[in-house]
Amino acid sequence: MVEVLLADALPELPREEADRETLSEQVVGILREVLEGPALCEAAKVRLRRLLVTHRGHPERALLEHLREMGVEPPAP
């Protein structure tokens, strides 16, 4: 069931429109790479997928919360 919701949260992006990507679309690309790649352990990927379900339609919020959970804070202004 999480995979079905994840598919809705991470839509396919046409490659020819890469130059005109919105921030959300860029975040979706980052999330795809993270979830499909070897950089995160499986437990972290499960937590990230749950955040995507929680923040359905707002992948940038899911990514921000994930980074905060991982202890990554934005630099001070």
Overview of this structure, please?
The protein is an all-alpha fold and 77 residues long. It has one domain (2-69). It is 60% helix and 0% strand. It has helices spanning 2-9, 23-36, 42-54, 59-69.
Number of discrete helical segments: 4
Termini Cα gap? 40 Å
Roughly how many Å is the radius of gyration? Answer: 13 Å
H/E element sequence:
HHHH
Judged by helices, strands and strand pairing, the structural class is: mainly alpha
Biggest sheet character: none
Low-confidence stretches: none
Total strands: the figure is: 0
Helix content range of the residues, please? 55-70%
Percentage of residues in DSSP E strands:
under 5%
Number of domains: 1
Mean pLDDT: 80
Question: What spatial form do the alpha-carbon principal axes imply?
Answer: globular
Features:
single chain, 77 residues, globular, 4 helices, mainly alpha, 60% helix
Give a topology summary.
Blueprint: H1 2-9, H2 23-36, H3 42-54, H4 59-69
In brief:
The protein has four helices and no strands. With 77 residues, the protein is mainly α. The longest helix has 14 residues.
